[in-house]
């Protein structure tokens, strides 16, 4: 046992299944441990390190901001915060942004906005919907929206007024919405749920019902956002405009920051005093965020991601075809890709990948969830593919 592992076990509340590895450095697509081993990171800190580890532009922005100030109270406007909000607005449907520290807090803000919006129309218009299989965070609101019983069964009572719709099931949706619905929370591609994508048919129905019953469509892009799915936002593939989008994970380039992007017609729902956060929109994290967005929106960056996606998915499909007894399906978009395996094989591959210098993540029990840095090179993708195939 490494000393750090031991110390962590002794003093940190035991909520995570830690690996017994002491990472001391990260650069590009690799993490390095204190034994001199390198690991090709195929899940990027669970979709946080979209630009890889130690991005120099992000680091420079952080250092520059730290030379000015680390924190400002909400009594002051802050240049890096206002700049990040401007970039987000200029590159989305939104007219205003609220900053939080994390994804689940961005969703909490959206819950409050949706409830206030609903109650302004009709006092009992407070019901919310999301999908079975979804994941929206760990706070009480986020956990309640999450459509997986295992995350909430021990913590009841949870938020009232939340129901779940069967994934991509238009009939179930129609039977559950009403004039009492104030919002539908949706991931365009379910991340924790096993890389499953919403259908065009479902979105068409959802948009129609949202107009009919006047409820908000709140897109949780905490995992899929900011280039992960090949576009800046995964919703862009579909023909609709969200009312709210929530972001976090990759927004701060590794620093904690979340955001709620709000459409123009909703920007006056929450008023001074309705919501807030001491640390939400930390200036250092915001400076990192602007550096992240500068790169993501630079010429050709997202085209590059799309090309890498085509290459990686095609190669994985060839491997799947050669191993039909092991791989059930390859699915995904951009660089959020699921490899569904039979039985417990995904966990076996994951366990063995470590000794070969590969970091893999498994979700929903049998799906290898690939979330490589968007900056991964073709050589690195080839290395991943050859190690992965050797493990099969
Ligand atoms: C889709 C989605 N929503 C919300 C969250 C919660 O974000 P955070 O862990 O930053 O609170 C996550 C985290 O995995 C997520 O993937």
Briefly, what CATH class of the largest domain? Alpha Beta
Q: Hey, roughly how much beta strand do the residues contain?
A: 15-25%
**Spans of at least 5 consecutive residues with low confidence:** none
Count of domains: 2
Which structural category do the helix and sheet elements fall into? alpha/beta
**What is the radius of gyration computed over CA atoms, rounded to a whole number of angstroms?**
21 Å
Question: Which ligands are bound?
Answer: pyridoxal-5'-phosphate
What is the third-level CATH name, the topology of the largest domain?
Aspartate Aminotransferase, domain 2
The overall strand count is 17
Distance from first to last alpha carbon:
29 Å
Shape: globular
Note the run of SSEs as H and E: HEEEHHHEHEHEHEEEHEEEHHEEHEEEH
CATH architecture annotation of the largest domain? 3-Layer(aba) Sandwich
Strand order of the largest sheet: 4-12-11-10-7-5-6
Question: What fraction, in percent, of the residue positions are helical?
Answer: 25-40%
Count of DSSP helices?
Answer: 12
| Chain oligomer state | single chain
**Can you tell me the CATH superfamily of the largest domain?**
Type I PLP-dependent aspartate aminotransferase-like (Major domain)
Major sheet details: 7 strands, mixed
Average pLDDT across residues? Answer: 97
């Amino acid at each position: 046992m490494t000393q750090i592992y031991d110390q962590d076990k002794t003093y940190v509340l035991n909520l995570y299944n830690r690996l017994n590895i002491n990472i001391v450095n990260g650069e590009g697509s690799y993490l390095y441990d204190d034994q001199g081993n390198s690991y090709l990171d195929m899940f990027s800190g669970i979709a946080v390190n979209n630009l890889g580890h130690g991005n120099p532009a992000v680091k420079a922005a952080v250092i520059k901001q730290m030379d000015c100030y680390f924190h400002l109270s909400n009594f002051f406007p802050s240049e890096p915060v206002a700049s990040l909000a401007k970039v987000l607005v200029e590159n989305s449907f939104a007219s205003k942004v609220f900053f939080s520290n994390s994804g689940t807090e961005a969703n909490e803000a959206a819950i409050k906005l949706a409830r206030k919006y609903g109650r302004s129309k009709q006092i009992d218009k407070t019901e919310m919907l999301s999908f079975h299989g979804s994941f929206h965070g760990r706070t009480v609101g986020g956990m309640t929206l999450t459509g997986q019983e295992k995350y909430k069964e021990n913590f009841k009572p949870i938020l009232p007024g939340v129901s779940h719709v069967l994934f991509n099931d238009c009939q179930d949706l129609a039977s559950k919405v009403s004039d009492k619905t104030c919002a539908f929370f949706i991931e365009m591609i379910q991340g924790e749920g096993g890389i499953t994508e919403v259908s065009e048919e479902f979105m068409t129905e959802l948009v129609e019902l949202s107009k009919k019953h006047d409820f908000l469509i709140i897109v949780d892009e905490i995992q899929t956002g900011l280039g992960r799915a090949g576009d800046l936002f995964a919703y862009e593939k579909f023909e609709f405009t969200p009312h709210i989008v929530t972001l976090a994970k990759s927004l701060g380039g590794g620093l904690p920051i979340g955001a709620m992007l709000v459409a123009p017609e909703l920007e006056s729902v929450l008023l001074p005093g309705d919501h807030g956060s001491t640390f939400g929109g930390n200036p250092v994290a915001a400076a990192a965020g602007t550096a992240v967005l500068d790169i993501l929106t630079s010429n050709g960056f997202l085209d590059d991601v799309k090309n890498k996606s085509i290459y990686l998915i095609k190669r994985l499909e060839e491997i799947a075809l050669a191993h039909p007894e092991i791989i059930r399906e390859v699915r995904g978009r951009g660089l959020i890709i699921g490899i569904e395996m039979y039985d417990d094989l995904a966990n076996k591959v994951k366990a063995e990948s470590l000794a070969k210098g590969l970091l893999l993540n498994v979700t929903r029990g049998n799906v290898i969830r690939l979330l490589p840095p968007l900056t991964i090179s073709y050589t690195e993708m080839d290395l991943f593919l050859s190690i992965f195939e050797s493990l099969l």
